[in-house]
Structure formats: structure tokens, C-alpha cells
Amino acid sequence: MSNTATTSNPLDLPEIRLVLADVLPLHTLTVCARVNKEWYRSFMPPLWRHTSLRVDIDKAGSPSAKVTTLKSATKNKEFIHNLSIIDFNLWRVRQRKELWSAMSAFPVLRSLTLQQTYDTQTVVKPESIQLLKPRFLHLTTVDFHPNINLASESYEEIMSSCPQLLTLRGGNVKALVLTQGRPWVCTLLRLWSLCLDFGTIDDYRGKITDAATGSSDSATSSSLEKNIGQQVEQMRKEVRRQLFERMSLLVHLETVDFRKMNPKGLCQPLHVDHNDSGLDRLLQCPRLKEVRFDWDDSNLETYDWIKTQWLEIKVNSPPALKIEDEFEDEDEFEDEDDDDSEYESDLGSTESDEYGYRRGRGPYCARCDEHGCSHYAEVLEIRHQERRYRHGGYSGRYGRW
């Protein structure tokens, strides 16, 4: 009787397969999951861990198409950690409980991304976000495309209910709602990307009216009514202080982005005065590395103050300064011999400045005979198109303006 040595394949051990599954690419995982039932059970969880659901825009008129798209994900919901829903029309699904209920049914959901929507006016109601509340305790990433008009109350609910949150991206949010809500529990937050809206007169009118009505002195009531604009501005300043005070408690915060892009791609500046807005409270965040604002001529003084005081924090430059810095580097264009006179009369004079530009004033326009005119964006776009054409389509240095 002979002793036969038995050799076992390491891949027969489920522990080994699980280790390999964490490093294998997606196409390899797909092949391995089809070997047999045991391999299917080992390689299927990492295959569904990062899931992207796409909805064809041509099928946007069929609500059943969206529900059908979620069926396969729902069957494997216990494996999905990171869910991305892209290429869909938000207007048609915002009221459908199938979408939000399906997302709330994923027991191990950690990351939720809604991107590339095809509308800019739809508001996602708080009732829809409430369906996700069972997952709030485990969410680490909430990434909503800026054109998804999520209600400010929903952002407040997320920040006060997601203790594991690390990344928060979204669109416009009312600072008044954030400061008047419950305390934030997202103390582990590392990336904040929200555009703050400090409200209009209508948002504060109720408080001023209540104060005036509650006063027994008619002279005081009359004074409040006459100085309503001044009162509103004082309230805005107080909201700023309260907001930055709350943000200073986010000790793990590394990146703060207050910028907003409207549907046309033009910046809407956030006017923050460093003298009385409490902006210096952000310095209490020990890990803060980068802050991004929308800059214009009205808040360049704040930019200069930040660059002077925040020596260890990276701050984005105003667009005007970025344009000048790019144009000052002529190494890219040392072989350029073209004559600009053919479009000089329409775009701007180059007598004293090669590119018709002045720091903080915008390009010179011969149409209006002034700097920084209403043709500012048009001037830049035409100039950039001309340069891209002359340099064979090169556009890497200019980016999006």
C-alpha cells in the first residue's frame, strides 16, 4: 500500500480567495466569480462593493426603466458599500419611492454619489432624504452634483445625523438653517464643499417684524422698520460668526470649498469680510490645509489678508490674478510671431500691455473704452480660442473660466 501525497490548492481556501479579491481588477473578479459556486460566493461581494447605476437619458421617459435598473443592485444589496447613480433625470425620480427606498435598503452602504443629472431646477424634498436615515450612522461620503437642489434642511439633517461622515459635497445651502439646527455630529469631516447662502431680506424679515411687534416703544418699532437693511446685515454677520464657530469644531477638517458654479459656469462670489465675519475661526482647525473661495473685486482685500495671515494654508487665487500669472510666463509662446492687430480693435488695446490686462481690473475692451467691462467673459473666450488655434489646439494652461 503506497502513501500518496495530497497537495491542496491555496485557492481552495475561502480566506485566501477573500484576500485576492481585494486586489484583483474588476474584469478578473468577473471571471473568477463564474468558476463555481464557492468562488462565486467569495468573489461576488468585492464585485458589487463599488456599484455605479447608469440610466440612459433616452429612456428617461420610462419610469419602469429606473426601477428595473435597481433590481440587480437590490438583489446584491448586502455587498454594496459605495453606490453611484449617474446619467439620470432627477425630475422624474425625485418623487419615486423606489429609488430612495432601494438606496435605504442597502445595509452596508458607506458612500452615496448622485452625479450628472439632466436638470438644474429640481429640489429634492426632505421627505426623500428621510428615507435614507437608517443608513446615516454608517455613511462616510455624500457627494451630490451641484445642480441637485437639495433642501438646506436635508444638509442640516445629514450633518447632525452622520457621525462617520468624512466627505460632504453639494450645492447651495442656507447658512441660517445650518446654524439654527441641531449640533453637528460629523466631527470626523475632512472635506467640506458647499456654497453658503446667507439669505435675503425675506429670510430675516420675520425676526425683525417679531422684534418690532414685541416692543412696547413705538419709536423703537419705527426705528427698526426704517433700518431694516442695517438690521438684516447685522443678522447676516451674526450667522457668519455662528457658522464659522461651528466649523472650528471640525478638528479633522482638511479642505474647505465655498465655491459655487451656476449652470453657465460663472462664479457667484461669497462675500466674506475678514474683519467681522469670524473667518479667523477656521484657523482653529489644526489639520486645515486648503481653502477655496469665489473671488471678485469686492473681496480682494480679504484675499490679501488671508495670504498674509494663513501662511501654512493653501488658498486659491482670484481668476484675474491667475490669468495674469499665466500670461506672464511666455516660454510657451516664444515662437509666436503672429500679428494681433487683426482682432486688436475688437478685443482690446495692447499699447501698454501685451494682453490688454490690468491686475484687478480685467482686460481692456475697445468697445466700451474701459477695463473689466461686460464683455469680460467674451474677450477671454475669444482670446483663448485664438491661442488654442495658433498652437494646434493647446488648451491645458487655460482650464475653464
From TrEMBL:
Gene3D superfamilies found in the cross-reference section? Ribonuclease Inhibitor (3.80.10.10)
Q: Where is the composition biased (Acidic residues)?
A: 327-345
Q: Where is this region: Disordered?
A: 327-355
Instruction: Give the top-rank taxon of the lineage listed in the UniProt record for this protein.
Output: Eukaryota
Cross-referenced InterPro entries: ARM-type_fold, LRR_dom_sf
Per its record, how is this protein called by name?
A: F-box domain-containing protein
* Organism annotation: Entomortierella parvispora
